[in-house]
Amino acid sequence: MRISNPWPAAAMRLALLLLIAALIGLASGYVTLALLLALVLFLGVQIRSLVRFERWLRQGRQLRPPRSEGLWATLFEHFYRLQRRHRERRQRLAELLRRFKESANAMPDATVVLRGMGEMQWWNAMAERYLGLEWPRDQGQRIANLFRHPFFSEFLAHGDWYGSVKVPSPLDEHLILEIRIVPYGQERKLLVARDVTRLHRLEVMRRDFVANITHELRTPLTVIQGVAETLSEQEEAGSEDFQRSLELIQEQSQRMSRLVDDLLLLSRLETGERKSAAVPVDVAAMLEALAVEASALSGGRHRIELDIDRDLKLHGDQTELRSAFSNLVVNAVKYTPADGRIVIRWFVDDDAVHMQVVDTGFGIPPHHLPRLTERFYRVDSGHNDATAGTGLGLTIVKHVLSRHDARLEIRSQLNKGSTFDCLFPVKLSARGLAASASPGTSSP
Ligand code: ADP
């Protein structure tokens, strides 16, 4: 119902009252007094309505407004409607909030709403089960004060909202949680914790299995290689077919032994503790040594150049870095045709410390690039068969780099060449000759 404009009617009433008062005044000879009395009457009615209005507003729960007339009836009606609309909206919001809480509580993951500095504002039932939060005791507390696992603290301080961290639950160390933090709205974050205990156990089983099986393969492989070598050295070496079979056995057992070595190294990288990078490694000297080894492997078929900052060092693990860099340099030799050029670069810029291997080799089709660091992933091209790699080299590189908070960028153009760029955080760099480690000669 539309409320019509009450002002004309109100003005008419007042005018009528004054007219009647004037007429009575004229008849009785007391015009001023009659008008005054009429105004007092009018004012009294207004004050009475005002008092009723105030009382009605105060007793907000009363549904219908008190009966009144004219302007006041319209006012009451206005307020009554506003109040009803407000009440309905509040009920709708409460219902929405109730449904949201119900669905958040039904979620199998723990969810915690965090404010700007990590203060916990709200959480669902699973958060109480996984993280041991208690309502309302912990409301407003900072999550960093309650959940102090070092991995989680580092993750929170780091602010890597694209990644996740795996940590045991503070209530039960056998319950493994994967925690993500998603920023939303203004200075708000949503923490989501998922139970990944089963996945974690499977992953540990897989790692143990690979580590054990590769370790067990080592002894029989050494025996096969030894026997093949002894047989090939015997004077009465037998027929040409026999010799060819022996060569095949040697070749394949060498390949298997490279595979076993790579798998063992990978499982060490996956399971080993991350060592603190206290010693600055003399990467320049290491790369010089690798360039010499690459020249030997190339047999003079490639031009191998060094473009390195000799004074630049890196805090890291000498053996792991050598494995990674060696894989990149050896790959450049393997996948660059004769007369090609390979440049090994070592420098620092504003963003990162770079170890780059640039070659003018076969290149890699773009759709393979995202998958190159997967285990056993090899680009299916005519060049691979001859080189007989394991498909684990770049996986090793990726693991070593992630243990140094570094990343690998690969740029490549088919038949033009590739650039493998390792980017380390500048904070890991060091200058000067003091305390440098020697360029190790251990095999990759
Ligand atoms: P592999 O033992 O096969 O060399 P990697 O993991 O080291 O295994 O490399 C994976 C694949 O990436 C290789 O099979 C090769 O096809 C491709 N690749 C690696 N480095 C280069 C490079 N410098 N130029 C062209 N292709 C490369």
In short:
The chain is an alpha+beta fold and 444 residues long. The protein has helices at residues 7-28, 31-58, 70-106, 125-131, 143-146, 150-158, 197-233, 240-271, 283-298, 318-334, 382-387, 393-403, and strands at 110-114, 120-123, 165-168, 176-184, 188-195, 280-281, 303-308, 312-315, 341-348, 353-359, 407-413, 417-424, 429-431. The chain has a 5-stranded antiparallel sheet, sandwiched between helices. A 5-stranded mixed sheet has the order 7-9-10-12-11, covered by helices on one side. It has a 3-stranded antiparallel sheet with strand order 6-8-13, with no helix packed on it.
Looking at the structure, what is the overall shape? elongated
Number of helices: 12
What class would the helix/strand composition place it in? Answer: alpha+beta
Mean of pLDDT: 87
Main β-sheet, spatial strand arrangement: 2-1-5-4-3
- Main beta sheet strand tally, sense and closure: 5 strands, antiparallel
The unique ligands bound to this protein are: adenosine-5'-diphosphate
Our Rg estimate from Cα atoms comes to: 41 Å
Which spans have pLDDT < 50 for at least 5 consecutive residues? 434-444
Q: What fraction of residues sit in β-strands?
A: 15-25%
- The number of E-state strands comes to 13
Quaternary state of the chains: single chain
**SSE topology string:** HHHEEHHHEEEHHEHEEHEEHHEEE
End-to-end separation? 86 Å
Helix-residue proportion: 40-55%
What does this protein structure show overall?
The structure is a single chain. The chain has 444 residues and is an alpha+beta fold. It has helices at residues 7-28, 31-58, 70-106, 125-131, 143-146, 150-158, 197-233, 240-271, 283-298, 318-334, 382-387, 393-403, and strands at residues 110-114, 120-123, 165-168, 176-184, 188-195, 280-281, 303-308, 312-315, 341-348, 353-359, 407-413, 417-424, 429-431. The strands form 3 sheets. Strands 2-1-5-4-3 form a 5-stranded antiparallel beta sheet, with helices on both faces. Helix 1 packs antiparallel against helix 2 and helix 7 packs antiparallel against helix 8 (240-271). The relative contact order is 0.06. Bound molecules: adenosine-5'-diphosphate. Residues 327, 331-332, 335, 359, 361-364, 372, 377-379, 384, 389-394, 418 line the site of adenosine-5'-diphosphate. Adenosine-5'-diphosphate (ADP) is lined by residues 327, 331-332, 335, 359, 361-364, 372, 377-379, 384, 389-394, 418.
